[in-house]
Amino acid sequence: MRIIRNAEEGRLALLTRRPLETDELPMEMRETIFKAFGQELAPEEVVRRVIRDVREDGDNAVRFYNSRFDGAQTTGDSLAVSNAEIRQAYNSVPEEVVEALRFAAGRVRTYHEQQLRGSLFNFNQGGLGQVMRGIERVAIYAPGARAPLPSTILMCAIPARVAGVEQVVIASPVLPDGTVPPVKLVAADIAGADTVYKCGGAQGIAALAYGTESIQRVDKICGPGGLFVTIAKKQVFGDVGIDAIYGPTETVIIADESADPELVAADLLAQAEHDPLASPILLTPSHYLADEVEKCIVRQIKGMERGKIAAAAFENRGGCILVNDIDHAIELANFYAPEHLCLCVEQPMAYAAKVKNAGGLFLGEASPEAVGDYTAGPSHTMPTGGSARWSSPLTVHDFLKTTSIINIPEDLTEELARMAGVLARAEGLTGHAHSVERRLQGR
Asked: Which residues span the domain enclosing 366?
């Protein structure tokens, strides 16, 4: 782990982001693109062609790209997972994993039910009001096949169900044999999803946005994904709703000398193992802690199954910045606006109010971000790329839509119509003015 001892240098090196699209694609991915299209293409053009083909050729195009991009043979009449496959999945997943999924699902459901109860749901005052309803049909994109992420299904599908979404469907990349990993099917069943579709990547997003022979189009697509999924969500937005644009995970830990360097190192490594482009960052005023955490990382990473990925993350976007004090660290964190911000300091509650920009705030060493990924309760789908400056984690509100109600009492009509007519004429919209002024005739 690099330690940057000048805060301004650290801000420029670690806390100033560059667009993901500027990173060069790995050679393996470039070769896959060449085999699929017969030429090298930029990611945006790849996605554009995939979306076009899926719109024109439906299931056949999805199967073609499942094969070319995922090496998966999705055969049969439908891309939907059958009920028999879901029942069989329970036989393939250890009982302790099923129990843990049910436990996590309960925590997630309870948290989001409380969120809904705390909302200003429906009102009607003085003839004006609103009614909030669940979106009719929502898709959750659940990334990962060889490395499945069942927790993402729980964290996205359960809030949708709590919000009252009528149909919740899951789209997942598939394994080479054309199946969805059993643990994801179990998670989808526990979360109450209606259907699971065998379609990952940009082709999955296109199928959800526009529909195919076996996939009904949805109203909104939620959930994280890789580069091509992210670009696809951008390109279909407007034809379908999306929740947000998600990038690689980010974790900033602010720690003082009271922090346990072994735990700080473990927490940084937990996030670094996600992705070579993950951002595990430590901000501390303690030279001693920085040096100790570095030693712990070197020792702990040797025993990690995904140690190479974690090491790459530290090399690419991770490290430690030495700051003046904890207030200075929070100032830098607010500038960076991380997905996750962990306060491993004495009296963390005393500093929590100073945090302005973070997707999730984790207070104290007893609240590690890794627990937030699985069993705490709030959705782990959180804003990345600095978007925590203006956006929020996925909640029940992402699955609700509001209809305004205007039912004006007759005793208010004259005043409202008269003023509306004045404004309409000021805008040159005489048809509007005539519409409201006719209500005044005979009064």
From this structure: 3-21+248-390
